[in-house]
Amino acid sequence: xxxxxxxxxxxxxxxxxxxxxxxxxxxxxxxxxxxxxxxxxxxxxxxxxxxxxxxxxxxxxxxxxxxxxxxxxxxxxxxxxxxxxxxxxxxxxxxxxxxxxxxxxxxxxxxxxxxxxxxxxxxxxxxxxxxxxxxxxxxxxxxxxxxxxxxxxxxxxxxxxxxxxxxxxxxxxxxxxxxxxxxxxxxxxxxxxxxxxxxxxxxxxxxxxxxxxxxxxxxxxxxxxxxxxxxxxxxxxxxxxxxxxxxxxxxxxxxxxxxxxxxxxxxxxxxxxxxxxxxxxxxxxxxxxxxxxxxxxxxxxxxxxxxxxxxxxxxxxxxxxxxxxxxxxxxxxxxxxxxxxxxxxxxxxxxxxxxxx
Length: 357
What we know:
It is a single chain. This protein is α/β, with parallel strands linked by helices. It has two domains: 14-91 and 124-236, Rossmann fold (3-Layer(aba) Sandwich), CATH 3.40.50; 237-357, Helicase, Ruva Protein, domain 3 (Orthogonal Bundle), CATH 1.10.8.80. It has 16 helices and eleven strands. It has helices at 17-35, 42-53, 68-78, 95-98, 136-139, 143-148, 183-186, 200-210, 224-235, 241-252, 263-268, 275-291, 299-310, 318-322, 327-337, 344-355, and strands at residues 57-61, 83-87, 99-105, 112-118, 125-129, 150-153, 156-159, 165-170, 189-194, 269-271, 315-316. A five-stranded parallel β-sheet has the order 2-5-8-1-9. Strand 3 and strand 4 form a beta hairpin. It is globular and about 75 Å long. The two termini are 19 Å apart. The model is unreliable at 1-9 and 344-357 (pLDDT under 50).
């Protein structure tokens, strides 16, 4: 049986070569602007840009001092988008985010009327800094905006600007006085990206840049309207039925109640990923392929995106922790265990054809 992983260029909805070249040029321009301020962190930057072009929200986790906030603000400047930062604290209220109604006197009629004052969520890029430092009630104020891209207040609905992204940060070290995000809200984030320490060479470059002359300012290279058009191009990138089946088997294999789940999944996971995880993986792979100028999703794209897309959508149990496993290592084991074409032999051949396509 021959597994078809060749690009489906005959698809009338697929983006043409010029569209892909425009998308890749935009990606390169954004990375160049970010590179003026941020040293290294290439994988983090790629995953963050993939989230943006896929219309997804992203959560960045890392210790203090790794320029998470600077990275988000630099990205917003390079995209020429309205940027708002909220510092989450234990006393923050939901209305501090979404806005509130006030009573205002109408000077014409003399009557008092309710007026809704928009909160900081009405922006293009919302940086939710240290999102785990505020109680669940305030965290939940973002849920409607993240999913429905609107805010409900006083019986009315107020649409958020388009595009709209929530880019959240959290500190994994200090857990005292913090409120871990509930699973329902974590699942709304397209990706969870880990920001690690820089290499020695990168750290030396950071010292030189940040303690020397003025740092270069990023310039806007993409407008909001252009970003919306590029996001539409990403959605048109085709994916073969073979890889759709592969994604479905990967996602279903994370659920320990499914017959196709490997034994280590049943031993290590409490909960697996839902259909939203599969949708996110497909969109992330489509975006990665398009940003690199390729006309169709490959196995390499799926494998590159699966860890940041699924790491916050599965829940490991005490058995996994006792055996030194975490969400990332379980996902990598799953990739090794689930073949692309249904059996190990055909899987190896499919991967080779896809990577050389």
